Amino acid sequence: MHASLVVSGLNKVYEGSGRRVEAVRDLTFTVEAGELVCLVGPSGCGKTTLLKCMGGLLTPTAGEVRLNDRPVSGPPPGMAFVFQEYGRSLFPWMRVRENVELPLKQKPLSKARRRELVMDALESVGLTDAAGAYPWQLSGGMQQRVAIARALAYEPAVLLMDEPFAAVDAQTRADLEDLVRGLWRERGITILFVTHDIDEAVYLGERVLILSASPTVVQEQLKVDLPDERDQLHTRVAPRFAELRTHVYEQIQAAKRGGTDAGPPEKTLT
Amino acid sequence: MRLFLLRLFFVVALPALLVALWWLASDGSTNVYWPPLRTILRTFPDVWTSERLRSDLVPSVLRLLAGYAAAAVVGVALGTVIGSYRRVRAVCEPVLEFLRAVPPPVLVPVIMLFAGIGDTMKIAVIASGCVWPILLNTVEGVRAVDSVMAETARSYGITGVARLRSVVLRAASPQIFAGLRQALSIGIILMVISEMFAASNGLGFTIVQFQRSFAIPDMWTGILVLGLLGFLLSVVFQLVERRVLGWYHGLRAVSRRSP
Amino acid sequence: MRGANAALGAAGLAAFLALGEAVPRLGLVKEAYFPPTSRIADALGQEVTDHAFWTALGDTLTGWALGLAIAVGAGVVVGLLVSVVPHLREATASTIEFLRPIPSVALIPLAVLLYGTELRSVLLLVVYASFWQVLVQVLYGVQDVDPVAEETARSYGLGPWARVRHVLWPTALPYVMTGVRLAAAVALILAVTAELVIGAPGLGARIAVAETSQAVPDMYALVVVTGLLGLLINVGARTVERRALAWHQSVRGEVMV
After folding, report:
1. Which chain B residue shows the shortest CA-CA distance from C185?
2. Looking at CA atoms only, how far is residue B13 from chain A in angstroms?
3. 3-state SS, residue A39
4. Theoretical Cys-Cys bridge with A220: which of A166, A262, B257, C52, CB 3.0 to 4.6 Å?
5. In DSSP terms, which residues pair with A190 in a beta bridge?
6. Dihedral sign, CA of B72, B75, B80, B81?
7. Do the chains contact at C193 and B189, CB–CB below 8 Å?
């Protein structure tokens, strides 16, 4: 079930109609098995490009992504993707139950097992009652829960989340953050969580990867030494939390200025 | 209950008024071309006996359904292929735009050359007229499948037939139905005029026969039957559409409320 | 990208024409039924030097334009009236739903009896068919009016006429344009149908004559002409639609994609 992700020398250049855009310059980092890593960076720094390369949705121009020592050349079966645009990622012609079940139909599973996985996943995100509804009948936060349930039911070893909560309101967002952390601790999935929200990155992650402005390199890797038990009320007011987020904030400001005055790649605040 | 009665009143009032007007205005009419409605209605059961329905209405409807179904299958299949590949689309586009623009009725004399004047000709005429709106709308629908949906399907390994059936065709279905709706009215036009051109039975044939033999009230009943047929087919179409596209109308209603 | 697409399209068109040449030449279908492209082109060349051809084209265009104009005018006026007068929308809904799907070709025998091969025969069919296209779009358009905008206008004391001009009409305009585009295509179909079946003068009648006199290449040439006419009308209507609505969101979005 546990899986590690290794990104080495990743480079992605978009070419089209005479223009050449280097979205990602040279990225190297590792996500250990069972880890929850957050990726932050200034907007437009190629976070989504990176994630799509990792998910096998885009082919990198150079470098490679390895999942459990096997190179990723297309969407690997043990990986699930949660998109920011939940409204466009869920299929509006299917009910919630069918949306969650659809990917499972590609796996050699019995009908009973499929149904069990669907109901279990929906229960995990607290949406058992909404199984028969259409996604567009639900609120934004609930729709993103459905997308998360769909990923859970798929039983992935790695979960890639691309700014999943950018489009929901603050209260819902806090609930969903706790949901993700809870699921991570419960199921031991390796999670790579992309966000532009510094607080969110520090609150959720075991480790925070700070990316530079485009063309993107890893600016800094930061270990988050907050306790495992976190909650919205106490964690966010802890002095350590404030220090960490100030540090991340400064790094991102530095990244925006284009300075690469980052220290050694792995560094713990002292 | 009061609301229901009010709604019923709105549904029935104007049609009733119009029929009454027609009845009164035509009553005692001596103009041969505008016989009294009373006469038309009296003629109706004499003309449209069950035997006549069997010999004229049924063949017409069967031809229409055969041609329409053929056009739907070919149009959706080809449209899916063309819509899925950008290059194929670029190659086919000008030719398709031209073929679509040809007014379908001019196909009748052309297809008569190949297929004579039998049922094959009529079915071919209907199919070749109906296929273009279905084909082009399918191309448009398949082309416009949302990029996030497509990536979601890919990332979950939904490929091949499953992708086609559960994602692509469903996402394109509102467009496909728009094409099917246009095709239905074209199909009825072609059904009628292909029978007017050359046939020994069918609604179009019968109505023209009445007109040529100056059986004016009979001709009027024929017009009524054609109108009713058009109306009924549209009702059936709407029922099917509401079933298949229920999600789409719901989605639109929701997004209209909160733009 | 655009240039590449155009090149591919031209290649497709060339292949289509070459196929039309090769299939009858190779004897895959009888040349008598399906003349090769070059012979159709010859026949087309002869047609365009014939004065009668231009008269026929003019007749078809007259029937089309006149019918379309009447249908658009009537559709817009009736549509706005039905939407503005209270309860009229509900009262007319069932009647419209019933009359709209009635195929206009059902009126052919009536047109023959009443007007013979006159222009009015063509107009009857064209107007009946295209009127509904416009009317229904106008009704959709008015339905789409933002209730907030409507209430704002009302709260500032705008009278019914001013509301129609400044709120209803601008909102409905894109829909009306769509209706006009659809109606333009339908009007051509019905104009040609009337000429073909009833024998009113025009391209359709010319096709019928070519058919009965076994002038197969000429018939194909005329079919090509009607296709080009249809193409011109479609492209023209789309251009007008885009021009007139350059400011409108739905069109801007379409252009961007």
Report:
1. B101
2. 37
3. strand
4. A262
5. A158
6. positive
7. yes
Q: Distance between CA atoms of C175 and B110, rounded to whole angstroms? A: 36
Burial of C170 (0-12, 13-18, 19+ CB in 10 A): middle
Does residue C203 contact residue C60 with C-beta atoms inside 8 Å? Answer: yes
Q: How far apart are the first and last CA of chain A?
A: 34
**Best residue of C89, C110, C250 to probe chain B, by most B CBs closer than 10 Å:** C110
Give B52-244's CATH code, choosing from 3.40.190.10, 1.10.10.10, 1.10.3720.10, 2.40.110.10: 1.10.3720.10
Listed by start position, the domains of chain C span 29-256
What is the pLDDT tens value at each position of chain A, 270 positions in all?
Answer: 456 889 999 998 888 767 788 888 888 999 999 999 999 988 777 888 889 999 999 999 999 999 988 899 889 888 999 998 888 899 999 999 999 999 999 889 999 999 999 999 999 999 999 999 999 999 999 999 999 999 999 999 999 999 999 888 888 899 999 999 999 999 889 999 999 899 999 999 999 999 887 778 888 899 998 888 888 888 989 999 999 999 999 988 887 776 544 444 444 444
Q: Which of A93, A103, A154 comes nearest B170 by C-beta?
A: A93
Handedness of CA A244, A245, A251, A254 (dihedral sign): negative
Give the residue from B101, A163, A209, B13 showing the smallest Cα distance to C230: B101
Q: What is the DSSP letter of C167?
A: I
Q: Where are the domains of chain B?
A: 52-244
| Span C29-256 CATH architecture | Orthogonal Bundle (1.10)
B/e letters for C13-38, b = 16+ CB within 10 Å, e = fewer, are: beebbeebbeebeeeeeeeeebbbbe
Task: State the ipTM, two decimals.
Answer: 0.88
Q: Is C100 on the interface with B (CB under 8 A)?
A: yes
What does the DSSP assignment read for B172-208? HHHHHHHHHHHHHHHHHHHHHHHHHHS-SSSHHHHHH
> Chain C contact for B162, CB < 8 A?
no
**In which element (H, E) is residue A235 found?**
helix A232-235
